[in-house]
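WARN no homologs supplied; continuing
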Amino acid sequence: MGMRRADRLFHLIQLIRGRRLTTAAWLAGRLEVSERTIYRDVADLQHQGVPIEGEAGMGYRLGAGFDLPPMMFTQDEAKALVASVRIAQGWLDTALSQNAQDALGKIISVLPVEARVAAEALAVYAPAVGLPEHALRTLQTLRESTQTRNKVFIQYRDLSEKASERTLRPLGCFYWGKVWTLAAWCEHREDFRSFRVDRVTYVRRLDEQFRDEPGRTLADLTRLDQARARERGLPPEYIQAAAPSASR
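OK structure emitted
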């Protein structure tokens, strides 16, 4: 059964708002209706005063000065948010986990009663079996350093228990289902390296900051991993999703 027209119109506005230019064909595919229905819905919204700019065959965008209340979630969307936060909290650092919980609380508090009750009663739980406390603290330092663009000094023990010390440009933190890794530019090796967060035995954020330099960015690393995937004959879907590989 298709969604109610009122819900479809609301969703249509949200889809147009989220993109610079949106074609009727793309909207029809997302909403599972015909392009003719999209043309009619857009015309009706324009007649009601919604500043949708553009025309059939060209694409649509939402004009300036219009917005919708940000907390109009359906019951299913509210339940998805609750499930996502519950699952994520076990694998986020303490600060990010608390912020996620606080944000969810604000969202839940302004939902209609039916949606709030349905979301809070969701029988999906995630026991706290994530990273140990020291790894969570390390993850927070590394995550914050990627945002502030500060170099970090780490002491590391690899999978063969070999110890090393590195000064790194932290580029991004990646979650792989059971472990987090840090993708970084290693100042000692003068090359990209990835490190398992739970095997970092000591970390210190340095005062020295860094700027993007050609050949040393996260985008450069991603392109390099994609090229390696092609050389190994991996399928296109793997190449498309290629990201910095597991720890070294």
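The mean pLDDT is 85.
OK
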